[in-house]
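Below is a filled-in request sheet from our internal design queue. Each sheet records the structural input a requester submitted and the sequence that came back. We keep these sheets so that new team members can see what a complete request looks like end to end.

REQUESTER: design group, bay 2
PRIORITY: normal
MODE: inverse folding
CHAIN LENGTH: 394
BACKBONE (tokenized):
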């Protein structure tokens, strides 16, 4: 069976229906609920093979949108003890994740040209992105903030160690305990971003904002297609504001760096976040070329025999088997691949694709991989590996 067929078989096997909503769990044993950006990845892949299933995936996701417009990063469709914490909400988490929703909706539309589906999802899209602009930027500096490392999608990344006040060698269990302390603190103020960010954890994360910019571009296209002039103006304005703010406040020595607190203290741990702005066309062509040559293809930093390290090999936090501390993950591979293709770095993108395919062939659909040996770690039957099919479709 080819990787493509295995990937679609995995997505079908992980599909669930609860209370009339159909969705895909990232891993039956390890992640038995619905996750925000995971569902967006599922929809992107399914758009080309099972567009109806892709539509249902996103309908289930937006069905639990909160009154303020936020879309939670976990929906607990079924009972279970895994990943269940005291969020203060019934049936969902109180955090969000990188806002890939508009991009996923557009990928479905490109295959179906279903105007009715766009119109159906549009109100939820606008409410979500308005929430991110209005509530996650309390100082009007035009950068969206995250209130917990989990909102970056990279729960255990050493990018946030300084803000969490934890050592680089912290265990995964101790790191989780520290993040749950944030949940407890934020719950006392009802997860109000405008106050909680200031008090406990306030990071303007580079991948989150780069993904926001690219999704606003997509939402601008959707707004235009639907004749929504107000939405089109909202997107166009904030694309410019966020892009400018990222360069003004997060750009240093040729790379974008996440920053913490109201003082915008740079978080200088070298992670794959360097490459995320390629996805949103935020580097100049000259900067992108230098970044690829100096960092991406550098065997002493990010380039490994089996993929792109999520943390530079030079960092003291680097561990090839570490959870987001150096190991290879398929979503970063996909973002980097898309960014490279955008800049015309076709050969480099093909190398990423080939390494991704080789990892699946060697170790199967695992959660993450050792960049030096290719060994798979974490969850089994993990759906992110299906993103390789989107790289193979170019």
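RETURNED SEQUENCE:
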């Amino acid at each position: 069976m080819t990787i493509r067929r295995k990937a679609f078989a995995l997505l079908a096997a992980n599909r669930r229906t609860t209370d009339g909503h159909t969705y895909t769990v990232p891993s039956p044993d390890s992640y038995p609920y619905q996750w925000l950006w995971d569902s967006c990845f599922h929809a992107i892949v399914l758009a080309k093979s099972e567009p109806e299933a892709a539509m249902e995936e996103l309908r289930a996701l937006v069905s639990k949108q909160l009154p303020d417009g936020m879309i939670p990063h976990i929906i607990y469709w079924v009972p279970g003890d895994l990943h269940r914490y005291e969020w203060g909400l019934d049936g969902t988490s109180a955090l969000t994740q990188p806002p890939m929703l508009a991009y996923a909706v557009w990928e479905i539309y490109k295959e179906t040209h279903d105007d009715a589906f766009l119109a159906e999802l549009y109100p939820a899209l606008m409410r979500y992105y308005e929430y991110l602009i209005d509530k996650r930027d309390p100082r009007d500096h035009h950068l969206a903030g995250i209130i917990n490392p989990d909102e970056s999608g990279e729960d255990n990344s050493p990018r946030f160690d300084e803000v969490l006040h934890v050592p680089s060698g912290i265990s995964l269990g101790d790191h989780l305990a520290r993040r749950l302390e944030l949940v407890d603190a934020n719950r006392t103020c009802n997860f109000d971003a405008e106050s909680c960010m200031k008090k406990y954890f306030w990071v303007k994360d580079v991948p989150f904002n780069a993904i926001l910019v690219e999704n606003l571009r997509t939402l601008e296209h959707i707004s235009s297609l639907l004749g929504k002039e107000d939405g089109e103006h909202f997107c166009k304005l904030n694309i410019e504001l966020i892009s400018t703010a990222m360069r003004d406040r997060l750009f240093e020595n040729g790379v974008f760096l996440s920053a913490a607190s109201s003082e915008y203290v740079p978080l200088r741990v070298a992670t794959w976040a360097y490459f995320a702005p390629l996805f949103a066309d935020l580097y100049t062509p000259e900067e992108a070329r230098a970044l690829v040559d100096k960092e991406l293809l550098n065997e002493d930093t990010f380039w490994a025999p089996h993929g792109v390290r999520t943390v530079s090999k030079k960092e003291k936090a680097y561990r090839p088997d570490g959870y987001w501390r150096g190991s290879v993950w398929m979503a970063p591979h996909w973002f980097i691949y898309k960014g490279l293709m955008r800049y015309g770095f076709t050969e480099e993108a093909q190398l990423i694709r080939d390494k991704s395919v080789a990892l699946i062939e060697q170790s199967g659909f695992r959660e993450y991989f050792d960049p030096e040996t290719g060994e798979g770690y974490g969850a089994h039957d993990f759906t992110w590996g299906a993103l390789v099919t989107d790289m193979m479709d170019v």
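SHEET NOTES:
- The longest strand covers residues 15-18.
- The mean pLDDT is 96.
FILED BY: M.R.
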